[in-house]
């Protein structure tokens, strides 16, 4: 033992170092676990002061450099003599444990020695720009121990990792400690960890999962494979949490995902009996949700899934359409139209079903919304038994909204259905065609009092307005308003009659005045009305002129209804007929028997119309007129007589006219409107752009019109040519592919 | 002239015969072009035509001759509105043609009309007649006749053919109509394409009669020439996405349909 003296005697290097050596030896003994008491504060002070003195002595006794070197040599000596031999004789897990111990010891040694030699850190290293003591100490371990062993260590670690993957228990804490060495030895940089361990670990993991995947993909069903994959990913994340460095997580996950899910994506999704298609077919929502979760994180991973989804929905939709088509061709007309209504119902159900998938299984992802939309756009635009989808949808609405329609539903159910129908409209490209059919059917419902519920009528118009804009519904809304006004008008008319008894035509008359622009166009023939009706027209005209002189009334007799009292032999029966039918029947008030030609001349109708009328009165269910000869069809040589013997158990019967096929006219009208719309779009575009290339003009035109319909290129070209002829546009002289607006 | 070599003399003669220029002009132009005939033609055609020798008075007399003698009663009866509208009409035109010794359906009449910028076929107004002959530098039937071969040669020039072709539409159609009647159009096409071969001409005419049967718009007329010029008869370089008029698109479909061309 030494005693502390106040006077500073010059310490000689060897002497001083001998003293230090005792301290170092003591430290080593403590580290080796040998019985050795800890340093007390006095010993510590002595050691520190020795260094201090040796560094602050006057030259040639300032031993800073030598001490700095000896500091390092101390570590080197210890490592060579003790540490490395201890490590070299061990392997695998035992080696790992030894390493952890030795590293821990080393850090302690560095801590203590650097405290003893602290004075060097204060001035010497800064002055000479040398590495600080801490760093020197760690560098020794790195250069001598780490560099020799890191590869072996890495192998041992990876072997344990793979062991754990196979289900065996391993010492996770040990691995954590080992890997901490890689991190710490980097001294602030992750390079050592990444290059000496992580890169190998990633390669090994990849090849591990590659082997697993290649056998699983053969043996397992898609759901099972996905379960395993999900489990593997979960385990790997846990692995990172327990002993890998957190920065390894994304890299490791990416590798595992790649081997399990990317490499075999196609095989997995397309597995014949259990792949994506099969899962959709069998409504396996859980498996599909898992599929979404797994592929969501992979770049472009969801695209094939969305694609299969789209194909599946399209196939289901097409099957429904085909079913309806088949039924229509095999059955009579009545069942065919019922089938068409059933089709719309089924399409709505299909939409509901797969929307749930999009929202729940596929977490509302835009790719799947898009897939659903595109699928519906494909089959929702197919024709069924000659009817376009636009017409089918309009007929479906008509059935819900009219009295005695085929759908018997509660108010709530109706609202819900109307909502869904409007959503389906979004998929139909010929929206203008739907609007026109809808308008025609709405007109019939309104004019013949066949509308079941005013609120529903208004409600669907509101929904249509929201979805398609105000222009879409403005005419229809006008029609509904007209009816309300017509009722008010009727009240005024009745008041007027009350105040002018002389004007009374003697027949109950109800007139509905319509605003021309809102309603579909109706042909009106100049039928020769019976005198009684002529008076009615005059009277109403008189009344109307008292209200306004600026409007012209055009009478559409084809839409009128008449109640006639038929005085038959057995009993009187009230006949509810159209105005035209009434005009025919009233002729028999003055003459018993009339030929076809007589009637034609007297009424001034076309052959087509007259045949239809006479057929309804003489060849259909209720034979009010007797036809001679009594064949099944009306011919121009026939003659007719009032059938006084006619009777029926009812007191009032309706004699319907067969409906005229409106489809042709609707299509014609819509085509005409489209020509104007295309013209307007082209002019609008060219007016603003002045000069534009052909393809761009066409694509902008299509885009502008897409809200209402899908114009075909030929139609656009025809309109362009017409606009050139009308001097709105011209081709550029140099480049015939460019068009110029002519102001 | 006698100072010239034989070959150069020949060149002058050739030049005059083809361009209708004066000998003096020919000499000047050839000298300036170093006696290269092709180059001389280029120079000549790029110049505006001189309005030299045509005496306007003589042209007026010529005009009146074809317009018809207003004192002649038979003429008056036949073309009685002729006095009020100052035009040479069908009868006058056929006299003109026989004087020139050409058939009325000879394409050179189209070229002549083009020079006159005539509004309609078989009619020439005073301005058109006089102005056109002035532009050609002639004031007599004989001189006009001499110009015929030159006018025919103009059809061989790419640029001029294009102009004449486009002009033909307005000229051949009925006054007041915007489109050209199909029969007339087909006739004109056959006439015009006799001057430059287009292998698909007959198919085009068949197609129109088979599938179209309506009048031809100006745009279709003009673009057809472009189509004949630019697109290979095998349709190998036809751009379906291009700005061709729809009738031409339909024609292409027709060719595929009828297996005239392989897709």
Automatic annotation (TrEMBL), chain A:
<dbReference type="InterPro" id="IPR059120">
    <property type="entry name" value="Cullin-like_AB"/>
</dbReference>
<dbReference type="Pfam" id="PF26557">
    <property type="entry name" value="Cullin_AB"/>
</dbReference>
<dbReference type="InterPro" id="IPR001373">
    <property type="entry name" value="Cullin_N"/>
</dbReference>
<dbReference type="InterPro" id="IPR016158">
    <property type="entry name" value="Cullin_homology"/>
</dbReference>
<dbReference type="Pfam" id="PF00888">
    <property type="entry name" value="Cullin"/>
</dbReference>
<comment type="similarity">
    <text>Belongs to the cullin family.</text>
</comment>
<feature type="domain" description="Cullin family profile">
    <location>
        <begin position="388"/>
        <end position="618"/>
    </location>
</feature>
<dbReference type="InterPro" id="IPR016159">
    <property type="entry name" value="Cullin_repeat-like_dom_sf"/>
</dbReference>
<dbReference type="InterPro" id="IPR045093">
    <property type="entry name" value="Cullin"/>
</dbReference>
<dbReference type="InterPro" id="IPR036317">
    <property type="entry name" value="Cullin_homology_sf"/>
</dbReference>
<dbReference type="InterPro" id="IPR036390">
    <property type="entry name" value="WH_DNA-bd_sf"/>
</dbReference>
<dbReference type="InterPro" id="IPR036388">
    <property type="entry name" value="WH-like_DNA-bd_sf"/>
</dbReference>
<dbReference type="InterPro" id="IPR019559">
    <property type="entry name" value="Cullin_neddylation_domain"/>
</dbReference>
<dbReference type="InterPro" id="IPR016157">
    <property type="entry name" value="Cullin_CS"/>
</dbReference>
<dbReference type="Pfam" id="PF10557">
    <property type="entry name" value="Cullin_Nedd8"/>
</dbReference>
<protein>
    <recommendedName>
        <fullName>Cullin family profile domain-containing protein</fullName>
    </recommendedName>
</protein>
<keyword id="KW-0832">Ubl conjugation</keyword>
From TrEMBL, chain B:
<comment type="function">
    <text>Neddylation of cullins play an essential role in the regulation of SCF-type complexes activity.</text>
</comment>
<dbReference type="InterPro" id="IPR014764">
    <property type="entry name" value="DCN-prot"/>
</dbReference>
<dbReference type="InterPro" id="IPR005176">
    <property type="entry name" value="PONY_dom"/>
</dbReference>
<dbReference type="Pfam" id="PF14555">
    <property type="entry name" value="UBA_4"/>
</dbReference>
<dbReference type="InterPro" id="IPR042460">
    <property type="entry name" value="DCN1-like_PONY"/>
</dbReference>
<dbReference type="InterPro" id="IPR009060">
    <property type="entry name" value="UBA-like_sf"/>
</dbReference>
<feature type="domain" description="DCUN1">
    <location>
        <begin position="54"/>
        <end position="256"/>
    </location>
</feature>
<keyword id="KW-0833">Ubl conjugation pathway</keyword>
<protein>
    <recommendedName>
        <fullName>Defective in cullin neddylation protein</fullName>
    </recommendedName>
</protein>
<dbReference type="Pfam" id="PF03556">
    <property type="entry name" value="Cullin_binding"/>
</dbReference>
């Amino acid at each position: 033992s030494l005693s502390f003296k106040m006077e500073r005697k010059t310490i000689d290097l060897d002497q001083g170092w001998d003293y230090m050596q005792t301290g170092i030896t003591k430290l080593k003994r403590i580290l080796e676990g040998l019985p050795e008491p800890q340093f007390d504060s006095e010993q510590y002070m002595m050691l520190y002061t020795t260094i201090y003195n040796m560094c602050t002595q006057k030259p040639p006794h300032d031993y800073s450099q030598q001490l700095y070197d000896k500091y390092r040599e101390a570590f080197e000596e210890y490592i060579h003599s003790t540490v490395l031999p201890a490590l070299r004789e061990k392997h695998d897990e035992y080696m790992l444990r030894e390493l952890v111990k030795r590293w821990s010891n080393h850090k302690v040694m560095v801590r203590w020695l650097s405290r003893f030699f602290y004075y060097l850190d204060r001035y010497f290293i800064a002055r000479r720009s040398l590495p600080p003591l801490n760093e020197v100490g760690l560098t020794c371990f790195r250069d001598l121990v780490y560099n020799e062993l890191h590869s072996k260590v890495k192998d041992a670690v990876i072997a344990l990792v793979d062991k754990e993957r196979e289900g065996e228990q391993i010492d996770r804490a040990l691995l954590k400690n080992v890997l901490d060495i890689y991190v710490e030895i980097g001294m602030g940089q992750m390079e050592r960890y990444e290059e000496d361990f992580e890169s190998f670990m990633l390669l090994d993991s990849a090849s591990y999962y590659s082997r697993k995947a290649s056998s699983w993909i053969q043996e397992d069903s898609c759901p099972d494979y996905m379960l395993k994959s999900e489990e593997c990913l979960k385990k790997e994340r846990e692995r990172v949490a327990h002993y890998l460095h957190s920065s390894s997580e994304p890299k490791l996950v990416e590798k595992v995902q790649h081997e399990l899910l990317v490499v075999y994506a196609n095989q997995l999704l397309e597995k014949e009996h259990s792949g994506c298609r099969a899962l959709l077919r069998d409504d396996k929502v859980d498996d599909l949700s898992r599929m979404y979760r797994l592929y969501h994180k992979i770049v472009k991973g969801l695209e094939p899934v969305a694609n299969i989804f789209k194909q599946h929905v399209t196939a289901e939709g097409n099957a429904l359409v085909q079913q309806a088509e088949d039924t229509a061709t095999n059955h009579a007309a009545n069942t065919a139209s019922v089938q068409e209504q059933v089709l719309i119902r089924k399409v709505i159900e299909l939409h509901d079903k797969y929307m749930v998938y999009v929202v729940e299984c596929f977490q509302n992802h835009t790719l799947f919304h898009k897939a659903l939309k595109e699928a519906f756009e494909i089959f929702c635009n197919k024709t069924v038994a000659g009817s376009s989808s636009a017409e089918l949808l309009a007929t479906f609405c008509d059935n819900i909204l009219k009295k005695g329609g085929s759908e018997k539903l509660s108010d709530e159910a109706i609202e819900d259905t109307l909502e869904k129908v409007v959503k389906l409209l979004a998929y139909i490209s010929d929206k203008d065609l739907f609007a026109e059919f809808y308008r025609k059917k709405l007109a019939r419902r309104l004019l013949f009092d066949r509308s079941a519920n005013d609120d529903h009528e208004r409600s669907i118009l509101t929904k249509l307005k929201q979805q398609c804009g105000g222009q879409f519904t403005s005419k229809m809304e006008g029609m509904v308003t007209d009816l309300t006004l017509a009722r008010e008008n009727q009240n005024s008319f009745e008041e007027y009659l009350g105040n002018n008894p002389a004007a009374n035509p003697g027949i109950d008359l109800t007139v509905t005045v319509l605003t021309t622009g809102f309603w579909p166009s109706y042909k009106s023939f100049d039928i020769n009305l019976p005198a009684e009706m002529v008076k009615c027209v005059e009277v109403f005209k008189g009344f109307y002129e008292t209200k306004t002189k600026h409007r012209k009334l055009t009478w559409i007799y084809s839409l009128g209804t008449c109640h006639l009292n038929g005085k038959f032999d057995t009993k009187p029966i009230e006949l509810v007929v159209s105005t035209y039918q009434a005009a025919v029947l009233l002729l028999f008030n003055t003459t018993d028997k009339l030929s076809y030609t007589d009637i034609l001349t007297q009424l001034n109708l076309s052959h087509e119309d007259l045949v239809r009328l006479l057929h309804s009165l003489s060849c259909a269910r209720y034979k009010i007129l007797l036809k001679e000869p009594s064949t099944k069809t009306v011919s121009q040589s026939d003659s007719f007589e009032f059938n006084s013997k006619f009777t029926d158990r009812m007191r009032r019967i309706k004699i319907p006219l067969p409906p005229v096929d409106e489809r042709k006219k609707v299509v014609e009208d819509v085509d005409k409107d489209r020509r104007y719309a295309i013209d307007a779009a082209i002019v609008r575009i060219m007016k603003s752009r002045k000069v534009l290339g052909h393809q761009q003009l066409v694509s902008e035109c299509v885009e502008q019109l897409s809200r209402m319909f899908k114009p075909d290129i030929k139609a656009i070209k025809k309109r362009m040519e017409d606009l050139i002829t009308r001097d709105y546009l011209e081709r550029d002289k140099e480049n015939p592919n460019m068009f110029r607006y002519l102001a | 002239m006698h100072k010239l070599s034989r070959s150069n003399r020949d060149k002058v003669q050739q030049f005059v015969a083809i361009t209708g220029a004066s000998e003096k002009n020919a000499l000047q132009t050839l000298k300036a072009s170093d006696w290269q005939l092709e180059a001389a033609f280029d120079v000549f055609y790029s110049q505006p035509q001189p309005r030299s020798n045509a005496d306007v008075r003589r042209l007026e007399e010529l005009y009146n001759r074809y317009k018809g003698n207003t004192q002649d009663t038979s003429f008056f009866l036949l073309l009685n509105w002729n006095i009020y509208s100052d035009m040479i009409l069908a009868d006058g035109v056929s006299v003109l043609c026989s004087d020139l010794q050409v058939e009325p359906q000879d394409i050179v009449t189209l070229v002549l009309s083009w020079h006159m910028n005539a509004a309609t076929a078989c009619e020439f107004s005073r301005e058109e007649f006089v102005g056109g002959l002035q532009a050609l530098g002639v004031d007599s039937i004989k001189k006009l006749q001499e110009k015929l071969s030159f006018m025919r040669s103009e059809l061989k020039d790419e640029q001029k053919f294009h102009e004449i072709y486009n002009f033909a539409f307005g000229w051949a159609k009925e006054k007041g109509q915007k489109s050209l009647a199909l029969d007339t159009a087909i006739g004109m096409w056959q006439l015009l394409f006799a001057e430059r071969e287009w292998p698909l001409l007959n198919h085009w005419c068949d197609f129109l009669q088979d599938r179209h049967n309506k009048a031809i718009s100006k745009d279709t007329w003009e673009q057809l020439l472009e189509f004949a010029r630019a697109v290979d008869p095998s349709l190998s370089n036809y751009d379906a996405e291009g700005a061709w008029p729809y009738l031409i698109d339909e024609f292409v479909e027709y060719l595929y349909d009828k297996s005239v061309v392989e897709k």
